[in-house]
Specification:
It is built from 4 helices and no strands. Helices cover 44% and strands 0% of the residues. The longest helix is centred in the middle third of the chain and has 16 residues.
Length: 91
């Protein structure tokens, strides 16, 4: 029987090179009731890590394709992903 799915490790292979691998996820995901400057500082700390990450592109694409609602992925926050999702595609 033939299958059209990719091996799971192949789909997730980009994660092994992620700069955030093994880090505390609280850098990338907001705690309950986080607002304002605290949120901005945490998101900027996450973006700093993402800027030096060799797989920020695949990470961001994964977040958009799987409609991740929370967290900083590939250097983009949930609000930024929502904003770009609302933009019409260029032809």
């Amino acid at each position: 029987m033939r299958t059209h799915t990719k091996p799971l490790l192949q789909v997730w292979a980009w994660q092994k090179d992620a700069a955030c691998r093994g880090m505390d996820s609280s850098v990338f995901f907001s705690p309950e009731r986080e607002r304002g400057r605290a949120r901005q500082r945490r998101e900027e700390a996450a973006r700093t890590i993402c800027r030096q990450c060799p797989v920020s592109g695949p990470c961001g694409m994964f977040a958009r394709a799987s409609r991740q609602e929370y967290g900083v992925w590939g250097g983009c926050s949930e609000n930024e992903r929502r904003s770009t999702a609302a933009l019409p595609e260029r032809s």
